[in-house]
Write a structure and sequence with these properties.
Shape: globular
Order of helices and strands: EHEHEHEEHEEHHEHHHEEHHEEEEHHH
Structural class: alpha/beta
Strand content: 15-25%
Distance between the termini: 37 Å
Largest sheet: 6 strands, mixed
Strand order of the largest sheet: 3-2-1-4-10-6
Number of strands: 14
């Protein structure tokens, strides 16, 4: 790739009456993060799954294309929607997959494109670290009271620092959460990017319900839910390490070759983990360390973390009910030898997906 190419920016969405705030997040992320991307050759595609379409009017105004996928019997799988998006939207040679509850710097796609051009990596994961913003901070962003770009820049100052990715400030938890407790200096730096009413010392006395929306929000959590003892808990929780979340630039042929995203059941399928494991198995020039993701020794991870906007995860939503089963299935695959994993990787059958969707509709 020596000249700019069109990048299809694929945004999967499902409206849920139990999670009405997700629609507000979608609208904010599309309007504020994706539509103004500095890369000039973006084709913004909203892919909605559900019983009935809810975003046609919004997509008409803000997106290049809109695809509605009719759900069968109310079943939903994000991985299946991602695969169908590739099969049905004709993305061209490149696509950028982005979930609508993640903030994204306006230069992110342009930076990822030129990094792909430089490294020839089949997929670029541009983020390092992860931040889950609290409910009041998320609401302040969506209401326009918090300058999200200013806050994101302040967050990146911290997550890109040498002190963030060492183990000195990790909160001791089981598993590999990589949860970091920020220093007082780092917290004050974040406060400098927040207006009055949203500074850490003003929010810290809120209850767990006020910060995180209630106990149901810890359902989708594979390690003990532990608060930071510092005021950073009022802004979000911060995690170090490389991230392969669904915000990445990918060559369409590579996505197809590794089988797309894995779908074994309705609900959450550990899609991000499966895709990454198969990608780095098939293209064995990938490597990682605590500082980021590399392709043939060239660093892909940028300075910005995956920054997740708050939304509820009510316990009555079946989407997460088999999450632990999905994790165990993934771990079994990941433990195999490369030879055995390669034998199980099959190309994504686009023709079959199109036929099944035609039949279902």
């Amino acid at each position: 790739m020596s000249t700019p190419e069109q990048v299809s920016v694929i945004v999967p969405f499902r409206f849920s009456p139990e999670q009405p705030e997700r629609e507000r997040l979608l609208h904010h992320v599309v309007r504020e993060c994706l539509a103004p991307q500095t890369y000039e050759h973006c084709r913004l595609v909203l892919v909605e799954s559900g019983a009935v379409p809810t975003q046609e009017n919004f997509a008409d105004r803000w997106c290049s294309d809109y695809l509605f996928i009719q759900e069968k019997d109310g079943s939903f799988s994000l991985g299946n929607v991602q695969n169908l998006a590739i099969a049905l939207t004709n993305p061209g040679p490149l696509f950028y997959l982005h979930l609508p509850d993640f903030l994204l710097p306006k230069h992110a796609i342009e930076s990822a494109f030129y990094l792909m051009n430089k490294t020839e990596a089949p997929c670029v994961f541009p983020n390092y670290g992860a931040v889950n913003l609290t409910k009041p901070v998320t609401e302040g962003i969506c209401e326009g009271k918090i300058d999200w770009e200013k806050l994101l820049s302040a967050i990146a100052d911290i997550t890109d620092s040498d002190g963030f990715n060492n183990s000195g400030n990790l909160i001791p938890l089981s598993s590999n959460s990589n949860r970091v407790q920020l220093t007082e200096e780092q917290i004050r730096h974040l406060d400098s990017a927040l207006p009055d009413g949203y500074k850490s010392y003003e929010l810290i006395n809120l209850t767990d319900n006020g910060l995180w929306g209630g106990s149901g929000d810890s359902l989708f959590c594979f390690y003990p839910w532990t608060r930071s003892s510092g005021e950073d808990e009022a802004i979000g929780n911060f995690r170090t390490g490389p991230r392969v979340k669904a915000s990445y630039l990918c060559k369409t042929d590579a996505f197809i070759e590794v089988g797309g995203t894995t779908v074994y059941r309705n609900g959450w399928n550990a899609e991000d983990l499966w895709f990454w494991e198969r990608l780095k198995t098939y293209f064995d020039a990938y490597s990682t360390d605590n500082s980021g993701i590399y392709y043939e020794g060239q660093k892909l991870s940028g300075r910005h973390p995956i920054t997740h906007l708050w939304h509820s995860t009510p316990t009555n939503i079946p989407y997460y009910h088999e999450a632990h089963i999905a994790i165990n299935e993934f771990k079994q695959f990941a433990s195999l030898s490369r030879e055995n994993k390669l034998s199980l990787i099959k190309p994504l059958n686009l023709a079959q997906l199109r036929e099944e969707q035609r039949h279902d509709s």
